[in-house]
Amino acid sequence: MSNKNLKTRKQWAHESYVAKDLSEIGLFFKKFYLGSGEYGSMGYFDWKISRNYVQPGIINLIKDNGKIVSTASLTPKQLFFQNHLIDIAEIGDVYTDDAYQRQGMFSLLGNETRKQGEKRNLKFIYGLPNEAALPGWIKNNFGILDKAKISSYIYPVNIKNRIQGKLNWAFSSIVSSIIAIFLYLIFKSKVLIYNSYNKIVVKEIYKCPDDWDSFWNKAKLSYDFIINRDKISTTWRYFENPNKYNLIGLFVNDDLVGYLVYRIISDRNVKNTVIADFLTLPGYESALSFGLNTIVNESFKLGVDNIILWCVEKSKFSGVLKNQGFFKRDNIPVIFYQNSYSKEIVQSNSFHFTIGDSDNV
The dihedral of CA 318, 186, 304, 179: what is its sign? Predict the structure, then answer.
């Protein structure tokens, strides 16, 4: 379809999704979503929008003769802010059919979706746009949450793919194996030294333990800004999610002192372990290394290329990650809609934010 035959910007109209649209939305993302994983599947949107634990979410569509050509979503969540739990939402990027670009759909769907969220009393609306979408959000009165300073971190498990283009196949395999074993031994030695002073027991858990909320009520007090991680929200986020997650509990004398959540994501070129979430009680930040050790062991067995996660730079966890061989990679821009309520929230001094607080995994 040529651009001259497309409707002009003023002619496009949005509509809210209905249940029968979910399968078509899944097909739309199958064609246009370029990331890893199953983002956009029918089951995924049914979980995060229809069965959301806070309130039903929002999906807005633009259709041309019944065909979906653009979509945006809003996922309700809860934020623990200054000792209060408030309803907020994450706005997803606007995805538009390549043949319909530059038709004003980004602003139309982005603004309408945000307005609908505000009408539902979702007081703080944030997002994690890709590089191409960021300027568009900034033009529509979104700011960047500079004080959070969130970065991505990577632990290279297998570097063969990185050096194969520079060395021949056989030699690159040998070199990558030697480096991987060297990094693994360093990692293990640091964990053993810490374990000589602290008796941490690591267990895989298949549901939130009975003392989860007791753990959460203590852990959250260390932060001005942290997305809700109580038993109900964590069960919804990871155990009811259509994607498979593994949850590791960190225990001292049978008491939960921390946890990590991870999943394996593969595509044609790379296989990554993504640590979606982690948190410990105050004073137990170094215990994170035991969960990392378990995930590193599993990643080596499964032939994973990298372990990746997000972490607030100024948190105590970032020091643990660096000490265990993780490298800082990229800065992660978090955007927020600028209104009277957000002005107070963005002045928070202590943040906790992980990939699991986004739609990115």
Answer: positive
